[in-house]
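Ligand-bound model needed. NDP.
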Amino acid sequence: MATTDDLDFDAMNARYAEERAKRLRDDAVDQFIEVKTEVADLDRDHYADPDFSRDPIVEETDALIVGGGFAGLLAGARLRERGVDNFRIVEKGAGFGGTWYWNRYPGVSCDIESYIYLPMLEELGVMPAEKYSKGTDIRAHCNRIASTYDLHRTALFQTTVEELRWNEDRQRWIVTTSRGDEIAARFVISCTGVLSNPKLPKIPGIASYKGHSFHTSRWDYGYTGGDPDNWGPMPGLKDKKVAIIGTGATSVQAIPLTAESARHLYVFQRTPTSIDARGNKPTDPEWVKSLKPGWARERRDNFTFFTAGIGTGEDMINDGWTDIVKHISAPPGTDPSQVDPIEIMKGGMRKMERTRQRVDAIVKDKATAEALKPYYYYFCKRPGFHDEFLEVFNRDNVTLVDTKGRGVEAITEKGVVANGVEYEVDCIIYATGFDWFNDYTHENGMEFYGRGGQPLSKHWEDGPRTLYGMQTHGFPNLMFMRQAQSGSSYNYTHTADEQTKHIAYIVAESIKRGYSAVEPTAEAEEAWVNEIVTNAGMRKGFMDVCTPSYYNFEGKYTIKAARNEFYVGGPKAYNGLLEDWQKEGSMKGLEVTKG
Ligand code: NDP
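Prediction:
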């Protein structure tokens, strides 16, 4: 492989700026729509019984959890551990899993190491079969958590929450659902996910297409054939010309198996993803035998803290993520005042150059290889990791349609238009992603009405306002599981686990101490929001030179975006802060109502 010694950093900065400029659009995040608004059928749940019905439930509970993904499951588990047993989980899908319920496309896997991504491994005494688990195994793990903590009987599946209204007299949230339920809940824990709402680009003509289409998170095996739990040929695609729009992390995983089945696959690319090796392998039984009690926490902490640039510098994970971080960090122990940002930038550029060299080494056609090379700073977009993706472009039945940052221009009755050419296809697969830190209200159109009937959308009209990312003033007994305003980790389940422990503590202690309502004081909330915006001030400089992506709100980094930032102290300080807060015991920063 060529070296990166002669990389011209000035020329590269100029190239990155040029590529960014090609992709900036005035409509930024408004270039997308929800799948259900444009073509209702694209939001269909292929795994649920469409004829399912049940009688409405009217009841009172200690807690209501909205969402049955990892966050909701962990919330339920931690409530049980603290002796709070009277709760419900309301979930739109027909089963647990959240992301892993909906995303069953061929190739779906985690690309955060499964030993740290799957929560409660040590507690449940299980070990994933591979370094990067398949989606079906992750969903099985979700159900394992649910069974261990007896959560299935709490679940209201195929149900969406519509309205949550705080009733001052009853000191309860009155929650109504799509199935006519009315649940009076003492606490509400909102676990609706960070990337859960599928979106489509507003491409002209999208509703006029007469062929078959679906979003990757609603993969239609009824059309493609094949088995979501046991990937193999998809006979329904054998005689089909297929278009896949988008080349983000999902598409990178879905393309290799789709290419094997389709008569022809057209890949419509707007921006290439950086693809580093993933290096999946079976779990080594000898390594498992060597593990000491506490290993799971130690390993998870190691990844979170290492990738946040904190810690001893020991890298227990040694994968694509940590390799990138090694290239863009100062050596451990470096005095922060001595860190040279120019050197950090150069390290990232050298690493990205190696990623581009990897494309040349794998993809035979020179023009295709050139088009697949990413030109932006690491972490402007989510990095990708795959061992078979680039090889796909050496197949005769795969065509890369690179739109050079412009994207697909139109959809017609017959197919997809890009670069002025119409590609007639039998099927369009939208791999166009999800809302990031979506306005929670989009999620099934649900709205929270707090004290005095104030809608949360009003309180948050300039972006979220929270204490520790989890509670907001004027909305008593309401808890959020979100990454915004928390101490984020690239490993979301780590953040979720820390937050659910905190939430379960507040719920259980409030019940024990006879508090009917707890909420952050306006001052505590203001102070925390200021901490977050301080971080945003530092991040803005980077985000403003980044190519558009959901990370930087498609190139418009506004105050709303800033309020979606993370705690400046990082995940270690954040986790410590929550632990200390609980130990201190006075519920500092919260105002409580007794009775
Ligand atoms: P992304 O938002 O990452 O990708 C959407 C893709 O659609 C991009 O390539 C985007 O191009 C493209 N696109 C949007 N509009 C157009 C258009 N008009 N014409 C052509 N292309 C268009 O969504 P993904 O579903 O791929 O991934 C979302 C996230 O889900 C990931 O970032 C990751 O966090 C998570 N994920 C995690 C996995 C895991 O293993 N843990 C696996 C898969 C996903 P452009 O880049 O130019 O915007």
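The two ends are 70 Å apart (CA to CA).
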